[in-house]
Amino acid sequence: MTSPIRTERHGEVLVIISDNPPVNALGAAVRQGLEAAIKEGVADASVEAMVIRCDGRTFFAGADITEFGKPMQEPALPMLVDMIEASDKPVVAAIHGTALGGGCEVALACHYRVAAPSAKLGTPEVKLGLLPGAGGTQRLPRIAGVGLALEMTAKGDPIPARKAADAGLVDKLVGEDSLEADAIAFARGIKAARPIPRASQREVRPDPDAVAAFTKENSRRFRGFDAPAANIACVVKATELPYAEGVQFERAEFMRLMMGVQSAAQRHIFFAERQAAKIDDVPADTQLRPIRHVGVIGAGTMGGGISMNFLSAGIPVTIVEMAQEALDRGAGTIRKNYEATAAKGRMKPEQVEAAMGALIPTLDFDALAECDLIIEAVYESMDVKKEIFTRLDAICKPGAILASNTSYLDIDEIAATTKRPEDVVGMHFFSPANVMKLLEVVRGARTAPDVLATVMDLAKKIRKVAVVAGVTYGFIGNRMLMPRQVEANKLLMEGATPEQIDRVHVAFGMPMGPFQMSDLAGVDIGWHRDPSRIENIRDALAAEGRWGQKKQAGFYDYDEKRQPTPSPRVAEIIEDFRRKSGSTVREISDEEIVERTLYPMVNEGALILEEGKAQRASDVDVVWIYGYGWPVYRGGPMFWAKSEGYDKVVAGLDKHGFKVAQSLRDGTIR
Ligand code: T1G
Taking Cα atoms as reference points, which of 150, 136, 130 lies closest to residue 104? Predict the structure, then answer.
């Protein structure tokens, strides 16, 4: 097997090159090749300096995550980076693409770093529930200081090369297309410089105020996660201990996290997210349809958010409304959202103007005729959607993709109103559509493979995580949400309170519970609007105008800052319903709430998989992580059920009389 590492001599400079597509992950063969090359350079008297660079799209993007949990093959990365740093001949890292995790640690162990301006450096291990385990938490603060080291390790977001240069992490920004030549020239410039700068030998002053401020500032963001605190602790150790002792602490923390359930869950989601992009029965090289212009029907909250995704990706959008006032309001909201983003420094004013310049608001439905993709985003009425698709069928050009943003309705029924059902697909965005990453791509019985492949590819372009769902009421996410809501309401009748149920879900790691969520979305969503017809607690609230946060009253009362407080009026309404329905009120345990609200979701997920309405269990997990705020450190409902033990989940469901999916009972969920 040829090594992914090769060397090339440029006079007195030895260039060590990794070629391990797709992202030069630091797998065993790469590490062995690097070790041999460094030894070769150190041993060869004619070598006066070395350069490490990578072929392909990026410098090392980290340790090979697929090797985690398997027996370690020597050399281990910590030993390899220490060996690079110990070299008595200067080693220069030549960085392009993304130097991430172990890749960044290799660069930090090199004595100098040069980078292409477009490069990024980062330690994203925390996003895998880990920390930089090859000296990164000890070398980073020694070079860049405590503040930036905390940012990079505990948050995990990469930084651009220019910022890295300003922080001393990169010694020189070189030509975008002359990386190797510039790195060799740089190496020649420093080959004789002594002493050789070694990051591990540098001092870093303690900065307890920065640590305290950082921890406080991010407490909400880090809630429930184990890894951020461990990253912070390691950086603090770097200011207290010599390198040799600091890395021992780092190593122990790394192994503790690696053995933990959270990292297993987060690594599961790393691969699940990438797997979700693959459609089992559609070849990866399927010819895609060109999407150069998109049409959106409806300029309401969803239509506006959906349009922003395409405008931000540089794809022009024709947005159609029935009335000028609604059209102006919709376009106005899009501009306001962009200007708010620019005000936070996350967009330049010229980018706002470019996006708004690509928006074509119109009352003329026929203007959609030339669009490559049309997304219908009007309110949930099958009749209205059928009428719209009939009109689209009459005017749209051959090959145009006709999509519905319905959250529940039957895509096949909508498609059947056209003579081109193969061009019809569901694109279910989540509110706010310009923010939420999830996109459920609903595959109809007649949806053509190239339509699916095109929409999945487009999802990447608009920075969405797309998951294929089959036609079933509520698709994957909302279908699993329904049994949870039903049980939550039953538990209210039996003695639980909205606050108790929501507290259990928030403690579990959800951003909010079922009733807080109902108040955010609107208690009146889907309400029959007849105040005299009161069949359940939700009807009673809606009839009283308690429509949720927007009315400062729903299942909770809300202050002007939208802070919820338990509502005596709601307690009365619930009490009234219990009395009228003759419910037996009893003490409800938190455990029972988990068994009756989360286990049924898992059960529904298993049924969805049995019916083939989702490709794989990990897709269901991706839906809940990116669409409903399921805590990533629990890996999603299906992964969580497996880590809890299917037997325990089945026992809980049996205890409460649920009909258990056969695959869950047999433990054969795929
Ligand atoms: N190991 C193994 N496979 C990897 C990988 C990695 N580190 N990174 C990517 N892949 C695979 C990925 O699964 C996909 O495979 C293909 O490469 C393309 O990836 C000791 C312990 C680099 C920004 O966390 O963030 O170092 O689906 O689709 O959108 O301290 O990949 O094609 O079969 O994501 O262009 C730390 C993880 C590891 C970076 C490129 N490093 N990777 O994004 O492509 S832990 C990371 C990424 C560590 C040390 C510790 C992204 C990317 P497939 P892709 P992309």
Answer: 136
